[in-house]
Structure formats: structure tokens, C-alpha cells
Amino acid sequence: MQTDFILNAAKAIQQAIVANENALESLDRAIGDGDHYLNMKRGANAIIDIQPALATLTPDAALQQIGLKLLSTIGGASGPLLASFFMSMAKTIKENGDDSISKIAASFAAGVEAIRQRGKADLGEKTMLDVLIPVSNQFVLLAAQHCDSKLICATLIDTAEQGMLATKDLIATKGRAAGLGERAIGHIDPGAKSCQLMIVAVCKLV
């Protein structure tokens, strides 16, 4: 992984978030606090703003700085969770390197595990993890099988969409949506949707 790729991914993510403003706001109005899009946009824009400084850093250091910036920029629960993801990725890459797809997959998995631990959530609870855990599992598996990067990305895009759509039929047990009980059924989780958008945006760069 090169720092240039991280910067391009940040731009692609920012564009994807802004392009889907109406969808994210609609989902969050239905079962969230109504501020998910604004928080995601604020975080994405903040990373774009520090890109000149990030460009001078190694990949692990750039990911660490992204995590710190998100921690200080995004409000609500998303900030600490996404910060944990990037900072855990950074730590894993610093310790193990990033010179293979398997190592990159391992760093992604470490980031997802950090979200799981910090959020005290798991698969099936109508959160971003319903996208991130299946994507992480597939990424690690396909990397271990030495699959082509194009195939890996195509599979991850499909997996992210399936995970996002699956949240529609789940009862939320975390966050504001948890208070809605069965009334949350029929609505896609906004965090799952934003994660799906981000994964698609990054995978399409490969």
C-alpha cells in the first residue's frame, strides 16, 4: 500500500459521501439521530484538508494521522469507532508491513476488530459491522488464497452490498435505533450504508 493510494481513496470516499447525501440523510432520519451524513461529510472533508501533510508520511503514519483527525472531527459514536479502525490499521502495518495483499487484509481485519471491541457490537446488530465483518472475513480469505486483486475487490463490493441490505430486516440493539425495537425493521442502517459506499469507492480504485 502506498500513501498515494490512501490519498486517492480519501478523495473517492469524500466524493461518494457527498454524492449520497440524500440517501444517508433519509436513512438517518428514519432510525438515527439525523446527523450521520453531516458527521461523515465533516470527517471526509477534514481528511482532504490535511492531504498535503499526509503526502509526506509513510502509509502507517498517514493512517495514524487520519485516525487522530477523525477522532477530533466527527461527533457522536462514529468518530471514536472510525478512529479506532484507522489507528489499528496503522499499528498493524507498522508492525507487520504492507507489502502483500495478505498483510493489507490483516490490517483491515485489525481495524474492524477494533471497532467491534470499542463499540461492544457484533454481526447481526444492525450496525456498520454488518458490512465490515463480512467484508473483512472475505478479504482475509481471498488474500490467503492469493486471488487476483480485481476479483477480491469485486467480491468485496458484492459482500458489502449484501451486508448493507441485510440490515433492513434486523432489529437494532445498539445506538438510538435500539430504542425503536421492531419499528427499525424495514430500514437500512445508515452506518452500514456509509461503510458500503466507502468500500465500493476504494475498491473501484484498484
Give the arrangement of secondary structure elements:
Blueprint: H1 3-19, H2 21-31, H3 36-49, H4 51-54, H5 59-73, H6 78-96, H7 101-119, H8 129-144, H9 149-166, H10 190-203
Helix pairs in contact: 1-3, 1-10, 3-5, 5-6, 6-7, 7-8, 8-9, 8-10, 9-10
Number of helices: 10
Order of helices and strands: HHHHHHHHHH
Q: Quaternary state, please?
A: single chain
How far do the termini sit from each other? 11 Å
Largest sheet: none
Instruction: Provide the domain count.
Output: 1
What's the level 1 CATH class? Answer: Mainly Alpha
Helix content: over 70%
Strand runs, count? 0
Secondary structure class reads: mainly alpha
For the CA atoms, what is the radius of gyration? 16 Å
Q: Which stretches are poorly predicted, pLDDT < 50 over at least 5 residues?
A: none
Can I get a quick summary?
The chain has 206 residues and is an all-alpha fold. It is built from ten helices and no strands.
Report on the structure:
With 206 residues, this protein is mostly helical. The chain has a single domain, classed as Alpha Horseshoe (Serine Threonine Protein Phosphatase 5, Tetratricopeptide repeat). It has ten helices and no strands. α8 runs antiparallel to α9. The protein starts with a helix and ends with a helix.
